[in-house]
């Protein structure tokens, strides 16, 4: 277990577990000035897990990198989710990538946490998050369907052999206001779900399918620990 500075009494424990049949290299990115969890990145073999501890007020994200190859100094490359060719990330993963995002509460807001699983940056590997020991709604969220297998042809990312390894969001693929919710489409009223985001939502109803998918995708809980599972079933 990695322990990081903070108020231990109100610390939040994240358990990252890999149920995939292959190794996942989780990456983590903290908000400005926040504790760096898991040194920014690590390797997680099939069937293994790791616990990371965050202080009250921590915010950040986790994602899974796939098909990575690092040397002894931590330099290398991942086919999906890569972060500047480093094992220990200092920035976000290259999309398309499935994200789980957290803002851990403090005493000033009743220790209320906010969290979600997001496909706004696309999809590369199934992820879920489950709260334990908390109070409030404490919903589970995730995208456990294999979106790569149903990804629209114009959103697909393929490796050298032609295998689909990730699925772009429509915003990433087309970079237009109606898909990115920018410009004249920068409000929930002017940026409704699209054909592409509805495919994501149907497959993964508890994940953010596009920028304004708040109502069914943002979760809250107080005083919980969280289990984040790759290739959850």
UniProtKB/TrEMBL annotation:
- Write one Pfam family the protein is assigned to: Thaumatin
Disulfide bridge partners, by residue number: 20-231, 68-78, 83-89, 138-221, 143-204, 151-167, 171-180, 181-191
Q: Where in the cell is it found?
A: Secreted
Query: What are the annotated GO cellular component locations?
Result: extracellular region
**Keywords, alphabetical:** Disulfide bond, Secreted
PANTHER family annotated for this entry?
Answer: OS03G0233200 PROTEIN
* Similarity comment: family membership: Belongs to the thaumatin family.
State the name under which the record lists this protein: Thaumatin-like protein
Tell me what organism the protein belongs to.
Answer: Canavalia gladiata (Sword bean)
């Amino acid at each position: 277990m990695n322990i990081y500075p903070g108020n231990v009494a109100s610390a939040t424990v994240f358990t990252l577990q890999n149920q995939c049949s292959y190794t996942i290299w989780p990456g983590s990115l903290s908000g400005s000035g926040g504790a760096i969890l898991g040194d920014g990145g690590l390797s997680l073999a099939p069937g293994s897990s790791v616990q990371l501890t965050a202080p009250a007020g921590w915010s950040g994200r986790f994602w899974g990198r796939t098909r990575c190859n690092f040397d002894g100094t931590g330099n290398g490359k991942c086919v999906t989710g890569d972060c500047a060719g480093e094992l220990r990330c200092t920035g976000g993963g290259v999309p398309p990538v499935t994200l789980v995002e957290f803002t851990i509460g403090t005493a000033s807001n009743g220790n209320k946490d906010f969290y979600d699983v997001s496909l706004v940056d696309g999809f590369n590997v199934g992820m879920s998050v489950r709260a334990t020991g908390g109070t409030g709604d404490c919903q589970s969220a995730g995208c456990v369907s294999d979106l790569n297998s149903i990804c629209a042809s114009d959103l697909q990312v393929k490796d050298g052999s032609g295998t689909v390894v990730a699925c772009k969001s429509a915003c990433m693929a087309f970079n237009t206001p109606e898909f990115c919710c920018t410009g004249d489409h920068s409000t929930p009223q002017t940026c409704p779900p699209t054909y592409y985001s509805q495919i994501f939502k149907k497959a993964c109803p508890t994940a953010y399918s596009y920028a304004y998918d708040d109502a069914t995708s943002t979760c809250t809980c107080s005083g919980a620990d969280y289990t984040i599972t790759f290739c959850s079933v």
